[in-house]
Structures are given as structure tokens and as C-alpha cells.
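Re: that chain you flagged

S.,

Sorry for the slow reply, it's been a week of failed gels. I finally had a moment to sit down with the sequence you sent. For the record, here it is as I used it:
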Amino acid sequence: MSDLVLVDTNVLLYEHDARDRDKQERARAWIAQLWRSKRGRISFQVLNEFYFNGTQKLKPGLTRKLARGAVRALFAWEPFTFDERTLEAAWEIQDRYRLSLWDALIVATASVHDCKHVLSEDLQHGQSFGGVAVVNPFAVSPDAML
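Prediction finished late last night. Pasting the C-alpha cells below so you have them in one place:
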């Protein structure tokens, strides 16, 4: 697969969450493979959610310095912003598939920026949203897919 993969917040959080070692290892394997293959993509929405949840909700939480370092490293993936076109697409996805606005924004961002996959535990594995397929990083290994 040479398609681009938009990574959702939960994958980044699991990468840093030592409470579930299996998910942490799988998230790390996915992120490492996406770095090597240069197929990983991210949005500023995801980076903001990661920073907030990583420093405020993760137990034990990340220090601000560590979270900021992780976010800065992901700037290399040239994070996507969302604009009017993305928001309109998100509303359409929200209504059609009955997703939360936040999940619809992830899918819409992937769609608008030609990512064929969203890597997320929060959406149903294998579900397709108009050309964007969901991949659960804990259901399939990166080697099997990439």
C-alpha cells in the first residue's frame, strides 16, 4: 500500500500510555512504520487533542515539555489545517454517517487531503466513508497493510 494514512489522536495517546503495553507497542509499531514509509499524515486538530489529552487526561500524564516535543516532531508530517471546504465536508459526513463532529472532521480532513486511510480505534475497522477507509491499528499490523 502506498496510500497516505491520517493518524487519529487515540493512536498517538496509546503510543505514550504505559497502562496498556500491548496497545502501546502496536501504536509505536504503526507510527514507526509510517515514519519509515513517509505515508503518515496528521492534522492540527489531532495535534491539539493529543496535547490536551496527553497533558490533562492521560494517567500518568505527559509533561508539557514532552508533549510539546512530540507535537513538534510531528510537524515534519506537515499537519493539515481545516478550512471552509473541510468543515462543509465534515458536516455532510456527520449527517450521513451519524458521527460526532470531531470524528467527521478527521474523516473529512483525510478525504480533502487525499488520505485513503484513517488510523483510529474510535471508528469501525474496515468502514469506508466515501473513499476513506478506517484501519484499527490494534486489529491489523502495519506490516500486513503497509
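What I noticed first: The chain is about 55% helix and 10% strand.

Talk soon,
D.
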